[in-house]
Design brief:
- The structure is a single chain.
- By secondary structure, the chain is mainly alpha-helical.
- The chain has eleven helices and two strands; from the N terminus they run H-H-H-H-H-H-E-E-H-H-H-H-H.
- A two-stranded antiparallel sheet has the order 1-2.
- Helix 4 crosses helix 9 and helix 8 packs antiparallel against helix 9.
- It starts with a helix and ends with a helix.
Length: 291
Amino acid sequence: MVLYFFWTVFLFLFTFVIGIIAPLAGVGGGVVFVPLITAFSPFNIDYIRGVGILVALTSALSSVPTTVNRGLASLKVVTPLAIVANITAILGSSFGIMVSNVFPKGKYYIILALGVLLFIVLAVIALSRRVEFPEVKKIDLISKKLDLRGSWYEPSLDEVVEYRSTNLHIALPLFGIIGFIAGMFGLGAGWASVPILNLVMGLPIRVAVSTSMLLISINASAAAWVYISRGAVLSILVVPSILGMTLGSRISAILVLRVRPRTIRMAVIGIMFIAAILNVYKGFIGLYGGG
């Protein structure tokens, strides 16, 4: 009974904090939730991944309505990406459950590789210029035909900012990979979608973050049904986690409209740095520490 109470309170407070910080960086929170809870809790990895997907979905659904109404989340950009990512997320969810039962050590190699990849992406973001307002010089044919552009009022500049997206032909296969990995590990896709939307497709960082959350709300809903149908959802984990994430995300939805683009960029870097360390740590512990 004491243990039940401890985990209920801990998960509520933990996800409440994640709910405030994660949406500012355009991630659902699963990328922090899953590695930490896996490392320090007694729960089975399948249950944790199932909750991780629901945590990411809750975070996105709580913050997306506000950003969509303000024109920050681009439905035009999300639609083709979501179609690809949804299919691969379902495949990744099914494959992840199979791997954990058939080849338990296999997932740690991928977790370790994911952590290394995050460090590389993190370095690219930290060293890149004009990520707040990228300059798109050339539009690919597909993006041009789909007219992937938009505008929003930027309070830090006190003006309406217009943007155009490009490189959709490169982004589509990348989001296919992201969807598979996100479904497999019970993560939201924001850890990778924000850098691709910003650095590859040329979306301003504020738009990339908001669009990432919209994509997570679609992508995670598909992956979540796989875990639910397999019984990989435990009430002691789900209930306090969703409550904490919902309250935190509502606060974050208000903050994301007020903070400066540079602050959002730092939040992205911070979340990705934590996620990279956690993935590398979990990979090494799983392979060489008897995990």
